[in-house]
Amino acid sequence: MTDSQFNYTGGCRCGSITYRIKGEPTWKVNCHCNWCQTTSGNVFRSFILFNETDITFSGETLKSYTDHKTEHGRPMINQFCSNCGTIIGIKVPDMEQRHISLGSIDQRYEIDIVDNIWVQEAHKFLSFPDKSELYKAGYWNGTGEKFKK
Ligand SMILES: [Zn+2]
Ligand SMILES: [Zn+2]
Fold first, then answer.
1. From the CA of 32, how far away is ligand 2's center (Å)?
2. What is the pLDDT of residue 21?
């Protein structure tokens, strides 16, 4: 397969891990839960979900940390480069999609995110554009409760 067949590329800061993705995202979301804050060392995480079969990794193996006590209601595997620490994303057991960290994608400025989950735990200094969809907690197949702006 040639590079022109891949829509997205990315990887970690030191270059030990790279990936190529041939499909389009299945979901794009910012998560403001406490788990995402702590594990990223930041205020929220931006995830772009792709079908696992569309992603090809190269280089070193991702370092994985499996956490069974998460606010997402299911185990999460935090995945990062063991050399530079760049968080490549999250793997959820039994899920056919992989959460890729927006900041690790080369084309990140071409990607817009409207959905925000776990806004009840969002930092007070954040503000959201009018077009944003805000959900109090999780969002399971369209059943998420809206957060009042
Ligand atoms: Zn690295
Ligand atoms: Zn989260």
1. 6
2. 98
Give the Å distance between the CA of 64 and the centre of ligand 1. Answer: 14
**Cβ-contact 118, 71 below 8 angstroms:** yes
Tell me the CA–centroid distance for residue 91 and ligand 1, in Å.
Answer: 18
Q: Which residues surround ligand 1, an ion (CB under 5 A)?
A: 12, 14, 16, 81, 83-84
List pLDDT tens digits, range 56-72: 999 999 999 999 988 77
Distance CA 75, CA 94 (A): 10
Residue 108 backbone dihedrals phi, psi, to 5 degrees: -60, -30
Cα-to-centroid distance, 36 and ligand 2 (Å): 4
Separation CA 123–CA 11 (nearest Å): 28
Domains, the chain, in order of start with CATH, read: 3-134 (3.90.1590.10)
pTM: 0.92
